[in-house]
Automatic annotation (TrEMBL):
Top-level EC class: transferase
UniProt catalytic activity: Transfers a segment of a (1->4)-alpha-D-glucan to a new position in an acceptor, which may be glucose or a (1->4)-alpha-D-glucan
Protein known as: 4-alpha-glucanotransferase
Family indicated by similarity: Belongs to the disproportionating enzyme family.
InterPro entries from the UniProt entry: GH, Glyco_hydro_77
Any Pfam family the entry gives: Glyco_hydro_77
Molecular function via GO: 4-alpha-glucanotransferase activity
Organism: Candidatus Competibacter phosphatis
C-alpha cells in the first residue's frame, strides 16, 4: 500500500453518495453521470470525493446496515457499459409495472445471459475475479440465493440446516439455487469492474475517493451468517445484546441500531483476521476511509436485545489499540479517519491520537456553549477533517433556519456575517479551517434546504433517496469554487 498520507496537503472535498447522482433507474449509478460528476469536481478544484458505504442495502436502503461488508451494491451497476460491451441489447426503458430496481434487476439478468453467449474474451478475467474474492464471494452469493428462495426471510429464520450451515444442506442449496448464485457473483464482478474504472478515472484527475466503513455489521447479513462465532449470538443465532448509542444530540432516547456486537475475545484470538479481510477489501476501493462510530472501538454501548430503546445500556471495553496495532502490522500506515462524534472521552481521544488518526470537526455543532467548544474553527487542529455538516445532519440552510435567535446571534457574531450570506458563510468558514481536509455535502454547494437532507437519524422511513439534478448546478459555481479553494489554499 502507498505509505504517503492522503492528507499530505490541504484539500477540499464533496460528500455525495453515488445513489444521489442524476441518471440511472431508481437511483444514481456508476454510469456516465458519475464520470461527469468527477469532471465537475475537478473543474471546481475539489480533490476528494467522499461517499457513504457502498455495500448492498436492505429494503430500507440504509448503507449502514448492509448485507455484506465486502460486496458492492448492485443497484449502482450502470447498464450503459453492458450495452457497449455487447452483453445487453438496448431497449426502451422500464415496463409500465417496473420500478427502478425491478428494471435494473431484469436487465442485469439479461446481461449475464449475454455475457455467457458473447463474453468469451472476458471469461479468464471473470474466473480470476472469483478466485481473488473467494474468501467472501461464495458465502455472499449463497446467502443471497437462499434469501431469495425463502421470500427474503432473514438467515436466522431459515430452516435449521441452512441457518446453521450444515455442509450437505449448503451443497444442495448451491445446486438448487444455482441460477441466482451465479447471477449474484456476476453482478459483483460488474460492480467491482465499474467501481475500479471510476476510481481510476478520478485518481487520474487528482481526485481521491474517501469511503466510509460502518463499525458494526448488519444482523441479517452474509457476514454474520457465515461467521457466527465472531458475534455475540446464542446457539440459535439470536442476538444476546445489540449496538446503539445512549441519548445524544440526535435523540433523547438514544439510538437503537440493533446490530449484533462482536465477540472480541474470539477476534483477538486469531489476530483479528476477520477485520484484516474487511479492511483489505476497503483499501482496494478507497484512498481514504472514515470509521463510522469510531468511539465504539474504545468502548461500545451494549443494549439488551429485548430493549425497546437505547436508554438502558452500559459501556463495555473494546480492544481498539490491539486492533489498530494488528492492522498497522498488516498494512503499514493506515489512511483512516476517526468519526469521533458523540460522547467522546479522553480514552477515545487517546485511541485516535496514539494511532495518528484525523478526527472530525462539524460546524453545525460549534455554536453551543463557550469559546472552548472543540468544533469552533479557532479550536480546530491540522490533523482533522472539517465539515459544515454530514449525511446525518440537516443541510446547512435547513440547520440555520431552525436555529433559535440566540444561537443565530452567536453564529453571526462569530462569523461576521448576516443571514443573506448563508450557507456560503459557513462553507467559507470550513474551507478556512486549519484542518488539512475540508468537506461539504453536495446539498450545501447547491444551497438546498431541509427537504433535501439525506438522512434523519432515528426516523425509519424516507431516508437515503435524495438525488440532485444537473440543472441545479449554475454556471457560476465552477468559477466560484475555484476562487474559494484558491483563496483558502485547497486547490
Amino acid at each position: 500500500m502507498n505509505q504517503d498520507s492522503p492528507l499530505d496537503r490541504r484539500r477540499a472535498g464533496l460528500l455525495l453518495h453515488p445513489t444521489s447522482l442524476p441518471g440511472g433507474h431508481g437511483n444514481g449509478d456508476l454510469g456516465p453521470d458519475a464520470y461527469r460528476f468527477v469532471e465537475f469536481m475537478a473543474a471546481c478544484g475539489f480533490s476528494v470525493w467522499q461517499t457513504l458505504p457502498l455495500g448492498p442495502p436492505h429494503d430500507d436502503l440504509s448503507p449502514y446496515s448492509a448485507q455484506s461488508v465486502h460486496a458492492g451494491n448492485p443497484r449502482l451497476i450502470a447498464l450503459d457499459p453492458l450495452v457497449e460491451a455487447g452483453w445487453l441489447q438496448a431497449d426502451q426503458g422500464p415496463r409500465a409495472e417496473e420500478k427502478g430496481w425491478d428494471y435494473r434487476q431484469r436487465r442485469l439478468s439479461e446481461a449475464y445471459q449475454g455475457f455467457q453467449r458473447h463474453g468469451a474474451a472476458e471469461q479468464d478475467t471473470y474466473a480470476a475475479f472469483q478466485r481473488q474474492h473467494k474468501y467472501w464471494l461464495d458465502d455472499y452469493a449463497l446467502y443471497q440465493a437462499i434469501h431469495a428462495a425463502h421470500q427474503r426471510q432473514a438467515w436466522f429464520d431459515w430452516p435449521v440446516e441452512l441457518r446453521d450451515r450444515h455442509p450437505k444442506a449448503l451443497a444442495t442449496a448451491r445446486q438448487q439455487y444455482g441460477v441466482v448464485f451465479e447471477q449474484c457473483k456476476f453482478e459483483q464482478f460488474l460492480f467491482y469492474r465499474q467501481w475500479e474504472s471510476l476510481k481510476r478515472f478520478a485518481n487520474d484527475r487528482g481526485i481521491l475517493i474517501f469511503g466510509d466503513i460502518p463499525l458494526f455489521v448488519g444482523y441479517d447479513s452474509a457476514d454474520v451468517w457465515a461467521r457466527r462465532d465472531a458475534f455475540q449470538l446464542d446457539k440459535e443465532g439470536r442476538r444476546e445484546v445489540v449496538a446503539g448509542v445512549p441519548p445524544d444530540y440526535f435523540s433523547a432516547t438514544g439510538q437503537l441500531w440493533g446490530n449484533p456486537h462482536y465477540a472480541w475475545d474470539k477476534m483477538r484470538a486469531d489476530g483479528f483476521a476477520w477485520w484484516k479481510e474487511r479492511i483489505r477489501t476497503q483499501f482496494t476501493q478507497f484512498d481514504l476511509l472514515r470509521i463510522d462510530h469510531f468511539r465504539g472501538l474504545e468502548a461500545y454501548w451494549e443494549i439488551p436485545a429485548t430493549a425497546e430503546t437505547a436508554v438502558n445500556g452500559c459501556w463495555r471495553q473494546a480492544p481498539g489499540h490491539e486492533l489498530f496495532e494488528a492492522l498497522q502490522d498488516e498494512f503499514g500506515r493506515l489512511p483512516l479517519v476517526a468519526e469521533d462524534l458523540g460522547i467522546i472521552t479522553p480514552e477515545v481521544e487517546a485511541l485516535r491520537d496514539s494511532h495518528g488518526l484525523p478526527g472530525m470537526k462539524v460546524l453545525h455543532f460549534a455554536f453551543g456553549g463557550g469559546a472552548d467548544n472543540p468544533y469552533l474553527p479557532h479550536n480546530h487542529v491540522i490533523n482533522a477533517v472539517a465539515y459544515t455538516g454530514t449525511h446525518d445532519n440537516d443541510t446547512t440552510m435547513g440547520w440555520f433556519q431552525q436555529l433559535d435567535e440566540s444561537t443565530r446571534a452567536h453564529v453571526f457574531d462569530y462569523l461576521g456575517g448576516g443571514p443573506e450570506r448563508m450557507p456560503d458563510l459557513l462553507v467559507r468558514t470550513v474551507f478556512a479551517s486549519v484542518a488539512r481536509l475540508a468537506v461539504i455535502p453536495m446539498q450545501d454547494l447547491l444551497e438546498l434546504g431541509s427537504e433535501d437532507r439525506m438522512n434523519r437519524p432515528g426516523v425509519p422511513d424516507g431516508n437515503w433517496t435524495w438525488r440532485f439534478r444537473w440543472e441545479q448546478i449554475e454556471p457560476r459555481m465552477t468559477d466560484h469554487y475555484q476562487h474559494l479553494l484558491h483563496l483558502y489554499g485547497r486547490i
